[in-house]
Write a structure and sequence with these properties.
CATH topology of the domain at 2-104 and 168-178 and 188-238: Purple Acid Phosphatase, chain A, domain 2
Structural class: alpha/beta
Strand order of the largest sheet: 3-4-5-9-6-7
Distance between the termini: 34 Å
Number of strands: 11
């Protein structure tokens, strides 16, 4: 089975559409979103509508948390806070209800999916975690693989029962060892921060036991124009380049 895992679309409908078109070229059995479908970008409601129409399961991201409780705005810096307040005003009742039904993690086909860090954190960044904490997490985690987003960067962390390895992931295929456990950070569809401005997502091939990282180009200029026309923070437009 092939599972497409997407994360951090951030209201970037142009990138999301191109990623979905890329996914259509493969024999994918499921698509799962790791959250932060909204925030920063100009079309959060349209992104959520597509997710609902295509029946794509999504876990709760830290940006979605603000929709469920405005007190979470205090967690964000002032620029992100301004963006989120605008984002919320753009959401339909259907989108708000959809977000409020999201859970903080999902188990699918024996694999764990969470926005930030296992078992169920939407706010913890992978780069914050010490090797000792990683080892404890792997020992407590029943699944062999957990997929995360949140940092907008590509990384794979492996554990063989003794040694922790942390390496960046690159475009193309990475084969995994079936005796190891992994936490895999899949990058971002809508706002990459790894030095390459293509949209990113992964395809997990459960039969051949490998991850393929896909780089997908999209019309960045069109998204930048929409961000500026809406009066969203310019920093979030500049970051796309």
């Amino acid at each position: 089975m092939r599972i497409a895992v997407i994360s951090d679309i951030h209201g970037n409908l142009e990138a999301f559409r191109e990623v979905l078109a890329d996914i259509d070229r493969y024999n994918v059995g499921a698509i799962i979103s790791l959250g932060d479908n909204i925030g920063y970008g100009p079309e959060p409601d349209e992104v959520l509508r597509v997710i609902r129409e295509q029946n794509i399961p999504s876990v709760m991201g830290n940006h979605e948390m603000v929709v469920t409780d405005r007190a979470h705005l205090e967690w964000f810096n002032p620029v992100a806070r301004k963006s989120l307040q605008k984002t919320i005003s753009l959401l339909s009742n259907e989108s708000i209800n959809f977000i409020c039904r999201m859970k903080f993690f999902k188990i699918f086909n024996g694999y764990r999916f969470v926005h930030g860090f296992p078992p169920d954190s939407a706010t913890t960044y992978l780069f914050q975690i010490s090797e000792e904490k990683l080892r404890d997490t792997f020992n407590e985690m029943e699944e062999k693989i957990c997929f995360v987003g949140h940092t907008h960067e590509l990384e794979i962390i492996g554990f063989d029962g003794e040694t922790i390895t942390r390496t960046p992931m690159h475009r193309g295929i990475t084969f995994l060892h079936d005796q190891k456990q992994y936490i895999i950070n899949i990058g971002s569809v809508g706002q990459p921060r790894d030095g390459d401005n293509n949209a990113k997502y992964v395809i997990w091939d459960t039969s051949n036991y490998h991850i393929e990282v896909r780089f997908v180009p999209y019309d960045i200029g069109k998204v930048v124009t929409k961000i500026l026309e809406l009066g969203l923070p310019k920093a979030h437009a500049d970051r796309l380049w």
